[in-house]
Amino acid sequence: MINPWVFEFLPELGGPSVEPDPHDVAALFARYLDLWVLDEALGFEGIFFSEHHFGRSYSASPNLLIAAIASRTKRLRLGVMGVVLPYYHPARVVEEIGMLDHLTGGRLEIGTAIGVPQELSRLNMSMAEARERSDEIVTVLDAALANRVVSHRGKYFSFSGLRLLPRPLQQPSPPRWTTVVSAESARRAARNRIRISTGFNSTQLIKRIFDAYREEAGAAGFHASADCFALRRRVTVAPTNDQARVYAQAVAERLQSFVAEDERLSANVPDASAPSGGFTLSPDEFITGTPNDVAQSIIEQCRTVGAGHFLTVLNWSAPFEEVAQAHELFGREAIPLLRTA
Q1: Domain 3-81+180-339, CATH among 3.20.20.30, 3.40.50.2300, 1.25.40.340, 3.40.710.10
Q2: Using one digit for the tens of pLDDT, what is the confidence trace for 168-211?
Q3: What DSSP character marks residue 269?
Q4: Spatial CA neighbour of 84 closest among 118, 62, 115, 127
Q5: Alpha-helical segments (H) within the chain
Q6: Measured distance CA(94)–CA(139) in Å, rounded
Q7: CA trace torsion 211, 217, 220, 223 (10° rounding)
């Protein structure tokens, strides 16, 4: 079985030179909240919100979106893939995890990420510093999930005897995830028994990344089942292949525009074969067609890499009506195929 998730980008209205009417922004939030409620009835496993800043997306604080949707759903798992740790104090990260796990009735998934280079650079933070901050915050998170009182002394944060409240409802911890783009980061996650998610790269490269996790997990004494792995892809779905190709061309144009807006985006995409990791935008990242066609492609890729979870970015940054249709088509026609794969 492949568990299907929504990976939510929540595109902004307008753009750098067009400021939308605030009432239109409020209406967009309301429409997406209704759509996410419908996703539960459509059979999605859950929703992973993304965190992005400074344009293109209304997801600067995705924990707020989880809180907003929690009371309107009963089954959907809810998380962020992932919370960009370098932006925050570890105490805030830990306490919001505890609060959200209770607000969701124990449906929270913990996801963490280092961040996107061109967004971090806007705050004069290098990737090296971001990695250091992320590692230090994960150390505090590990300690807080295991202990009622936490003390820490590190390069960026120091405190003593903090009670971080409330403790999560799911004990000893909600499921934990992190995003990876290299075998090295996958091995590090395996040593900490944290599940991993990735995309962008070719299916064959992702298989090697997941295999590195499996190898490290075996050395650490546990079996890494398919439940430890999530594959994330951009899916463009429509009633016919011709319409899907039209939508996919628009997705490609929006993506090219996104890259062109900031030269640092392409400049900071390292060689995926390098030991330090990185990603290339493989053609495998884009899955296009009717619900049946995209389901078969998803099944093939998930089987190749051994992933038990699939995170779908549906009709990326399209107008709301197109996105809503894509959710309906994918939920009613593709999800049953994934659930029985």
Answers
A1: 3.20.20.30
A2: 999 999 999 999 989 999 999 999 999 999 999 999 999 999 99
A3: -
A4: 115
A5: 22-42, 62-70, 90-103, 117-121, 127-146, 183-191, 203-220, 241-260, 263-267, 291-305, 320-329, 335-339
A6: 11
A7: -130
Backbone angles phi, psi at 288, to 5 degrees: -135, 140
Give the SS3 label for residue 290.
coil
Structure tokens at 53: 């800043």
What is the Cα–Cα distance from 12 to 306, expressed in whole angstroms? 34
Structural Rg of the chain based on CA atoms? 19
Provide the residue ranges of all domains of the chain, joining segments of one domain with +: 3-81+180-339
CA–CA separation, 87 vs 134, rounded Å?
A: 9
Query: Which residue, among 100, 103, 180, 97, has the nearest Cα to 141 in the 3D structure?
Result: 97
pTM, two decimal places: 0.92
